[in-house]
Amino acid sequence: MKRFNTTGPCIPEKHYMVDLKERLEQIRELVDDGAYFTINCARQYGKTTTLAALAKQLSKEILVVSIDFQRFSQSCFENEWKFCYAFAAAFASEINRILPETAEGRQQLEELSIQKKDGNFNLMRMFEILWQFCGSLDKPVVLMIDEVDSASNNQVFLDFLSQLRNGYLDRELKALTVFQSVILAGVYDVRTLRRKIRPLEEHKLNSPWNIAADFDVNMSLSSEGIAGMLREYEDDYGVGMNIEETAALLYDYTSGYPYLVSRLCKLIDEKVAKKDSFPGKKAAWTRDGFYEAVRLIVTEENTLFDSLTGKLADYPELNRILSSLLFSGENTGYNSDNLAIRDAAMFGFVKNRQGMVAIANRIFETRLYNYYLSNSEIEGLDICRLSKQEKNLFVVDGRLDMKRVLEKFVVHFHELYQDCDESFVEDEGRKYFLLYLRPIINGTGNYYIESRTRSMGRTDVIVDYRGEQFVIEMKIWRGNEYHMRGEEQLVRYLDDYHINKGYMLSFNFNKKKQIGVREIAAGDKVLVEAVV
């Protein structure tokens, strides 16, 4: 029986996976056009799986040579000879695997094996042999290099790209037979390699990959594609899941990030289904089972999250932008010339939503909030200490009492920060509410910020606690008219979630304000409004 896979490439015969047909057809068009291009996506975004599927599709008509730079040791990039030796060995190994011994091109392959042992073997000589090899075959050659950024901080790799570029240009100008197509896959865009080379070497830089074609293929999974994968699972197990609803939930929380989709499915299938509260797969593949999987994924350790948080330490400006985006409601225009924004998109943190920078998906957003709210300095704040002391007051018969949460927060925030100035409240108020909320729901519930409403004026927090959802609008007080519009917006938002009760938390700078919590009726909805 198949399973959901989150380690290594997905294999259709072994793993549940989204149909890649449409994606492969789009990439095939680039190959048929003779394009040289890069597939740049964040970690665990399906690049290797896509390359493997493409190689299989092309293999009947094209000789596909697949090389993985991650298998090269760092010493392979120390100088030109070592790199050529390693690359020639990898290339010859691939040809021995896929090309019959009687096929044309064996003579050039033997020459490659002989030359690589020569201490003077260099890129120019290696490519001369490779072009002779391509010219001796009766079908075109496509070169695929995965994990290409494993070498991207080495000058020898830039020189390698330059030779590929020269071959591409000679193909057009001199009718030279070279690779029909070259596909480089990795996280870093090789067109921006100059940022990874040491400053002392900047005089060596050129544009080694300026012949690359645009790669506009969407590597994210669609809700429809996810539904097709779930349908195959349902055919195998017959759990009676609502396929469209589950696919929509998976897409809403992941924005189609392949690893996150597969990981959530794997958690539902293999972890949630074994919990006492979800006896069996039928109980697990429900809305409540899905929320339980979300709770598990945002708290677990895995290589993807480790990689993401590592980038926050390595890229201070990236760290600053993300923190501002999450806590200050700062609206930042998506400017690809801004290196920090470009890095954030390259690593998968953010995306371009209608010209504005937005966190890529709800899972990342919650994980980032947890990261920023969990350092020792923050957890030592009085507001956190009080929340931890009182957390048992807010759950009655297994249900979260959100009104009581707001009541206690208003009292504590007023006591602790009433003397702070307006700028402190505007910058930190919403962060402090999340600091107060997090210990209360931690381990049982989870939360995320609804990106559609994040702004300097208002932010909606959605809390999932044991299958029950709470919508809390946090906003800066801008007067009665603005407040009434906020109530109307919250009512419409409650309709979207099919919820009858909503919550408002207003940070009011008016010295005559009356702090506290009250309930009001708004049509068929009840709004619990807190003012601090």
Q: Tell me the name of the CATH class of the largest domain.
A: Alpha Beta
The count of β-strands is 14
Content-based structural category: alpha/beta
Distance between the termini: 56 Å
- Shape descriptor: elongated
Please provide a written account of the structure:
- This protein is α/β, with parallel strands linked by helices and 532 residues long.
- The protein has 4 domains: 21-204, Rossmann fold (3-Layer(aba) Sandwich), CATH 3.40.50; 223-297; 303-363, no CATH class; 378-531, no CATH class.
- Helix content is 47%, strand content 15%.
- The chain contains 20 helices and 14 strands.
- It has helices spanning 21-32, 47-58, 80-98, 106-115, 123-136, 155-173, 223-237, 243-254, 258-270, 281-284, 287-297, 303-314, 316-327, 339-346, 362-372, 376-379, 382-390, 402-417, 422-441, 480-497; strands spanning 36-40, 63-68, 141-146, 181-186, 350-353, 356-359, 395-396, 399-400, 445-450, 458-465, 468-476, 501-507, 516-522, 525-531.
- The strands form 4 sheets. It has a 6-stranded mixed sheet, with helices on both faces. It has a 4-stranded parallel sheet with strand order 1-4-3-2.
- Helix 7 (223-237) crosses helix 8 (243-254).
- The protein starts with 20 loop residues before the first helix and ends with a strand.
- Mean pLDDT is 87; it is low at 198-205.
